[in-house]
Amino acid sequence: MVLMLSGKMRLLRWWFIFLLCLSPLAALFVNLLDDNLGADPAKIIVKELGFWAITLLWLTLAVTPVRKLLGWRWLMSFRRMLGLYTFFYAVLHLLAFATFLIGWRWDILLTELTKRPYIVVGALALLLLIPLTLTSTKAMQRRLGKHWKKLHSLIYPISLLVMLHFVWQIRSDFGQQFIFAIILAILLGYRLYLKGRSS
């Protein structure tokens, strides 16, 4: 009976986090249908999808520190989901940019790449996310063995590229970027601290 209740709780928790991660996209879609995205809805869509890609990446990075500090072992079972949602929102961010802002014009894209380096680092971060996404399953973890952990340590340079992508878009107000940078510094700093203690 206890095991049955525990299994139901895990399932409810899984669905809760799954739907919670999906809710920003649903809210964006509802606001789009209600014509509630302001004077430039295309720009808002691209910006919001990018914001949630970064947020979910930071949450993925936060799983291990939170587990160690609070002892929440159950969080580990959701790290893969958060990572996959990160990739999902990042791909949507790219597709929205290509569709709404440059209209799938390769000549405009090439011009943007030379004029705006934040697009280059953002694209590189997304490319590096692809092998992490493809090897996120337990089967791939077993197949790659010790190499799996080395491959997935790419999450750290990816996070730095994403932060650079975010910062280079600053026009005037840099408050949001500053908050994300502080959080990333704490998350990566904690990992360096743990690595120093174990060495």
TrEMBL record:
The chain crosses the membrane at residues 51-70, 82-106, 118-139, 151-168, 174-194. It is a multi-pass membrane protein. Keywords: Cell membrane, Electron transport, Flavoprotein, FMN, Heme, Iron, Membrane, Metal-binding, Transmembrane, Transmembrane helix, Transport. GO terms for cellular component: plasma membrane. GO terms for biological process: protein repair. GO terms for molecular function: electron transfer activity; FMN binding; heme binding; metal ion binding; oxidoreductase activity, acting on diphenols and related substances as donors. It is found in: Cell membrane; Membrane. Binds 1 FMN per subunit. Binds 1 heme b (iron(II)-protoporphyrin IX) group per subunit. InterPro entries: Fe3_Rdtase_TM_dom, MsrQ-like. Its cofactor is FMN; heme b. Residues 49-162 form the Ferric oxidoreductase domain. Part of the MsrPQ system that repairs oxidized periplasmic proteins containing methionine sulfoxide residues (Met-O), using respiratory chain electrons. Thus protects these proteins from oxidative-stress damage caused by reactive species of oxygen and chlorine generated by the host defense mechanisms. MsrPQ is essential for the maintenance of envelope integrity under bleach stress, rescuing a wide series of structurally unrelated periplasmic proteins from methionine oxidation. HAMAP family: MsrQ. Belongs to the MsrQ family. Heterodimer of a catalytic subunit (MsrP) and a heme-binding subunit (MsrQ). This is Protein-methionine-sulfoxide reductase heme-binding subunit MsrQ. It comes from Amphritea japonica ATCC BAA-1530. The gene is yedZ.
